[in-house]
Amino acid sequence: MGKTSLVLGFMIVILLVVSTGLVAATHTVGASGYDFTSIQAAINDAGTVNGDIIDVYGTITEAGIVVNKSLTIQGQGVSSTIVQAHATAGNATDRVFLITSGTVTLSNMAIQNGRVPSTEYGGGGIKIDGATSITFNNCDILNNQYVTYGRGGGIYSGDYSEPTYIEINGCTISNNTVNLEGGGICFDGSNISSVIKNSTINENEAGDYGGGIVYGSGNHELINSTIFANVLVDGQFTGGGG
User: Fold this and answer.
1) pTM (2 decimals)?
2) What would the pLDDT profile of 115-162 be if each residue is shown by its tens digit?
3) Which end of the chain is more exposed for a tag (fewer CB within 10 A), N or C?
4) Do 125 and 155 contact (CB within 8 A), yes or no?
C-alpha cells in the first residue's frame, strides 16, 4: 500500500470516529457569540460516549436543567460564571440542576437561586437522582431553597438502587435553606458514598435536623473542611445545627 493510500485511510478513520461521537467534543454556552445560549440545549446536543465538555461563560439564568449523560460542565470561575434559576433569590419555581445519570463534573461556577416549592422531593439547588458519579470542583452553591417538607436545600441525593459516588472539592455551600433536614447538604441513602474536602459549609438553615449536613447512612468522609454558623429553626424535631 502506498503512502498516499495510508494517509487517506487514516483520514477516513478519523472522520468516522468524529462523526460517530467517539471522541469528546466541546460546546460553548453564553449570552451571545457562542454555540448555544442555554446549557440545556448544549446538553441535548452533546454526545453520549466519551463525555463532552460544556464551557459556560458569563451569567446564565436557566432553571430545571436536566443532566442525563456523562459530561463536564465548567465555568470560568465562581465570579465569572453564574448559573442561576432566577435573577433574584426566592423567586424561582425550580431547582438549577437535576442530574439523573452518567459520570458528571460541575466545576468553576456559582450555582444559585434555585427554589423548589413542592413539585419534587429534595434539592433546592441540585438534585442527584441516580447518577453513578458526580464531582463538584471549585463551585459556590448558594441561596437555594426547598420550601415545603423536604431535604437538601443546596444539594440532595436519595436512596437509589445503583451506587452513587459524590465528591465535593474546594467548594463553598452557603445560605441555603430547607424546612426539614440538611440546609446545605442531604445525602439520604445507604448506596451513597461521598467525600467533602477543602470546602466550607456555612450559614445554611434547616427546620429540624442538620443545618449544615445530614447523612442518612452510607459511607462519608469530611477532609480539611470548615463547617460553621449553620442553624436550625423551630420544628417538630431539632438536632444538629452543624
Assistant:
1) 0.89
2) 998 766 789 999 998 778 999 999 999 999 987 767 888 999 987 777
3) N
4) yes
